[in-house]
Design a protein that fits this description.
Largest sheet: 6 strands, antiparallel
CATH class of the largest domain: Mainly Alpha
CATH superfamily of the largest domain: RecF/RecN/SMC, N-terminal domain
Strand content: 15-25%
CATH topology of the largest domain: Glutathione S-transferase Yfyf (Class Pi), Chain A, domain 2
Number of strands: 9
Number of domains: 2
CATH architecture of the largest domain: Up-down Bundle
Structural class: alpha+beta
Number of helices: 9
Helix content: 40-55%
Distance between the termini: 16 Å
Strand order of the largest sheet: 2-1-3-4-5-6
């Protein structure tokens, strides 16, 4: 896939601009605060309708404007020339592909992959597990649209059980009913993450070899809260943990507590890698 043209209107500090791209490489040069990062942010938005800088869509719309628009012309290896238009409003997003409005994110994810590498990406190593889970979920959803449905099913199920726990009125029969939905959702998500990380581990290692000069090996390892993929086993585990969960009023076991680990030369990159090694490792993650 190649990006041939991008048009931005009222996107951050870009009032109205069209940029055309030719050749294999493009360099953006200019003074600070002129919109270079905003342009890259817009290109990155194409993949999953998310900014790598903020989760608040309102910040992407220029001050005093009701909406922003992003229009892309792409040369796709399977779909040929494709036009994508995204409209951003404070209350949400609107997406059109070749003139057709797309209402389900699952129908769009993975079609137009982009890779953005920024200084914030170092938090994938140094930050909390939630950041790594978010990266993994976005990456796997872009690879397989059915992953998003699996993730959404789990999020709904664990949120429902947590609401029951927080109410302070959770009876055994009610917990049984909620766990009947949560257990298969957890098992399916773990199964998909095991397969997904295994699929990412090889290109991640290869990318690190290219970036780092081939002197060291890099490993991407899935660290699940519990590695079980059998729904029946998950129901037992949830039932066994009820007393603790009731005390804390939250579900304390499940894929929402999973983590990822990057190892370089056998050691945890977060703890032992140099600044350069950490940057190379995060770039390898993005390139995978």
């Amino acid at each position: 896939m190649r990006l041939r043209q991008i048009t931005l209107r009222h996107f951050r500090n870009v009032a109205d601009a069209t940029v055309e791209f030719a050749g294999r490489q493009t360099f953006l040069l200019g003074p600070n605060a002129q919109g270079k990062t905003n342009l890259l942010e817009a290109v990155g938005f194409l993949t999953a309708l998310r900014s790598f800088r903020t989760g608040d869509v309102r910040l992407l719309v220029a001050r005093g404007q009701p909406a922003a628009s992003l229009a892309f012309v792409l040369e796709h290896e399977r779909q040929g020339e494709t036009q994508v238009r995204i409209i951003l409003r404070p209350e949400g997003r609107e997406l059109h592909c070749d003139g057709e409005k797309i209402t389900r994110l699952a129908d769009y994810l993975g079609r137009f992959p982009t890779v953005v590498f920024s200084a914030q990406d170092l938090q994938l190593l140094r930050g909390a597990p939630a950041l790594r889970r978010r990266w993994l979920d976005l990456t796997l959803a872009a690879m397989d649209s059915s992953y998003l449905a699996s993730l959404q099913a789990f999020v709904r199920a664990v949120a429902a059980r947590n609401a029951l726990l927080k109410s302070g009125r959770a009876a055994a029969a009610e917990l049984d009913a909620f766990e009947a939905a949560l257990a298969p959702a957890a098992a399916d998500l773990v199964r998909r993450r095991v397969a997904g990380v295994a699929a990412l581990a090889v290109p991640c290692g290869a990318a690190y070899g290219r970036v780092g000069g081939g002197q060291e090996t890099a490993e991407l390892i899935y660290r699940p809260d519990w590695a079980e993929t059998d729904p029946t086993a998950w129901r037992r585990r949830l039932a066994e943990g009820r007393a603790r969960d009731l005390a804390f009023r939250a579900t304390l076991t499940g894929p929402h507590r999973d983590d990822l680990e990057l190892r370089i030369g056998g050691g945890a990159a977060r703890d032992f890698a140099s600044e350069g090694q950490q940057r190379s490792a995060v770039l390898a993650l993005r390139l995978a």
